[in-house]
Specification:
The protein has 521 residues and is mostly helical. The protein contains 27 helices and no strands. Helices cover 63% and strands 0% of the residues.
């Protein structure tokens, strides 16, 4: 029997360096997210010797934004609070302004104030009031932060200011389109694209494809396909355009029937599939567990003269392992090397994940050990595959190992474990996982609270569920009407036992003063 996963990792003294994830590069592959989306909670790396200055600037911005009666008043307060020695009173560097905007990303008003302050100071610093504007990253962050908070009025204000300063970029407009798409404001996303010319920003095919990707990523794939066909006179149909739609049906929503339909549409419009088209179809069939069609498309791809990349082989490894053709999956590794490719972590994950799904943990651990021996480090997805199947003790050991190796755990890890143990009728272990979150300094989100409350209700622990539900509302999370009704019914039915039905803020109190029961830990 293979040793437990945590023991395997300890044996090889695997130390992982957390991957630095900066957010300011433009995405190109069909499923790539926008500049700032992948790591919205990942802080920017600290610039040397700027922490004190950054902290002071953030404090002044936040104070001005909260105390002011209007944006103009906030800017005036911020200028008046600047150190007397600063002439003009501006952030020390463009990098500092970018870092400040990132720290203020959850407060779009403060972020917009910081950007305007930096712009005003930069303008004042130049000859005759024409100094260089803040860097593009600062403007983009401000647009993104406002859009993420659905403060599109602020986002447009930043865009208009960029236009006046002559620094409006296509990237800023694309970020705005992406935020509209994520908010399911499809028409406004399209309208943003249409007004680009009025803002004197070129709306070319590259930007059009960015709009299509944004719509597909937000699961508005039908709208993206309709737009692609409606605008074919302005942007001729290409394999790249259809691949964006195909990626939506293959990877965002795995719908084999729709993917096949789009494939036929390509033929109807005399568009020849390219290597990416075949790669996407292999991925789609693989995810659906369709081994026959995965191999058929792979063979056709080679016959058409397209060379499969690592992604195609990873898909084949996954579907072969899932369909219990493990020996054939292992042969893919040799095939990779013959093709001049090297297995990567996703190749190994493509075998580990289905093995774990089939509860073949010993085999999965052996694959993990082989991967580590080759110097390939696990990802958080690798750990999640094991965590979905392991018991509570091994799960807790893996959480500690993930922390040591810089691979989490993150909030999704704990949400997955809480749901898993409730589904296994192990509510005690689910609450143990909940308590572990504090040790890893992860604050429970609305999803975590709802998972615990609904799990406890399902298992008949309604009094305990009320405790967590009350705590959830105290932290400002929205209540759930269905749970409110269920708790109200419970409290009314147990009025005598609970000495008053309004104890948990489900039923309004007659008295203004309520003695609360001590919170259960």
């Amino acid at each position: 029997m293979a040793p437990p996963l945590a023991a395997v990792l300890r044996r090889h003294h695997l130390v992982l360096v957390p991957r630095l994830r900066l957010l300011l590069s433009t995405a190109h592959s069909p499923s790539d997210q926008s500049d700032f989306e992948p790591d919205a909670d990942q802080p920017l790396p600290a610039a040397p010797n700027d922490d004190g200055e950054l902290t002071s600037f953030l404090h002044r911005v936040s104070h001005a934004a909260s105390a002011a009666s209007s944006p103009k008043d906030a800017l005036s307060r911020l200028f008046s609070s600047s150190p007397a020695s600063a002439s003009p009173p501006a952030p020390a560097s463009p990098a500092l302004l970018v870092r400040a905007l990132w720290e203020l990303r959850r407060d779009p008003d403060a972020a917009a104030l910081a950007l305007r302050y930096g712009d005003e100071c930069s303008a004042a610093a130049g000859d005759e009031g024409a100094g260089p504007p803040p860097p593009a990253e600062a403007w983009h962050l401000a647009v993104w932060a406002a859009g993420k908070a659905r403060r599109f009025d602020l986002a447009w204000a930043v865009v208009r200011r960029m236009r006046r300063r002559g620094v409006l970029t296509r990237r800023a407009m694309v970020i705005l389109m992406e935020r509209y798409a994520i908010a399911n404001e499809v028409n406004k996303a399209i309208k943003t694209f249409d007004v680009m010319e009025k803002f004197k920003v070129e709306a070319d095919q590259t930007v059009f494809y960015s709009l299509l990707r944004a719509l597909c990523k937000s699961k508005n794939i039908e709208d993206a396909e309709e737009l692609l066909l409606l605008r074919k006179k302005f942007f001729p149909l290409t394999a790249e355009g259809f691949n964006i739609i195909l990626d939506g049906w293959c990877n965002v929503i795995t719908d084999v029937a729709e993917a096949k339909r789009v494939w036929r549409e390509m033929s109807n419009y005399c568009i020849t599939p390219d290597g990416m088209s075949y790669t996407l179809m292999v991925s789609c069939f693989s995810k659906a567990g369709n081994l026959f069609d995965s191999l058929r498309v792979y063979d056709e791809m080679r016959k058409r003269g397209w060379t499969p990349g690592i992604g195609v082989y990873n898909s084949l490894v996954y579907v072969l392992t899932r369909e219990n053709c493990v020996k054939d999956a292992h042969n893919i590794f040799s095939k990779l090397i013959d093709e001049g490719l090297q297995p990567d972590v996703e190749t190994y994950n493509s075998m580990i994940i289905p093995l774990c799904e089939r509860c073949q943990l010993d085999e999965a651990r052996m694959v993990m050990e082989s991967m580590i021996l080759k110097g390939i480090v696990p990802t958080i997805s690798t750990y999640h595959a094991f965590l979905k199947q392991e018991g509570i003790d091994e799960s807790l050991r893996l959480l500690r190992k993930m922390e040591e190796d810089g691979r989490g755990p993150d909030s999704d890890t704990f949400l997955m474990l809480i749901n898993k143990f409730f589904e296994l009728n192990e509510s005690g272990n689910a609450l143990r996982v909940w308590n572990e979150m504090r040790r890893y300094e992860i604050s429970p989100s609305h999803s975590h609270y709802m998972a615990v409350v609904q799990g406890l209700v399902k298992h008949g622990c309604i009094p305990r569920a009320l405790e967590y539900y009350d705590e959830m509302k105290e932290k400002g999370f929205a209540s759930d009407p269905k749970l409110d009704k269920e708790f109200k019914t419970f409290l009314l039915a147990n009025r005598d036992h609970w000495r008053g039905a309004g104890k948990y803020n489900i039923i309004p109190q007659r008295s203004k003063h309520v003695t609360r029961r001590p919170r259960m830990q």
